[in-house]
Amino acid sequence: MDKALKVIRELQNSGLIRAYAIGGGIAATYYIEPILTYDLDIFFIPRTEALDLLSPIYGELKKRGHSLEKELVIIEGIPVQFIPVYNDLVKEAVETARESTYKRIKTRILRPEYLLAIALQTNRPKDRERAIQLLSQAKLDSKLLTRVLKDYGLGERYRKLKV
Questions:
Q1: CA distance 35 to 125
Q2: Is the pLDDT of residue 141 over 80?
């Protein structure tokens, strides 16, 4: 995964993306016991406003010899899904992501409070399960979580989750 993260960092340095953070299952395993996950989810803030945000990224990665499989790019054997920020919650999550290092590669990971809120917002069965795991296993900043849940209208889903 370190080689994939290095390539993603290069995309940011080249200006194709403004900011990024690891999300999804791989980010969750940073805070909770490992879970089965298939790909590396990279949430990103695009450099420009455009209708097709992924083509420039896919084009650059293809030029570098990486293959495409449906919505995934295979980077050094790791399936990577690039997900442009699609609402204010996800944008805030990327902007406030934690700096981290993986095998000497600097990267960014969504905070557990935002992973939980995004899981509640998405609200698929697997997301609710991940939210429960984060709630029971991750060290959460209760003030931050309360604010995020309030700001994005997720309080009721959170209360149902805790029942």
A1: 15
A2: yes
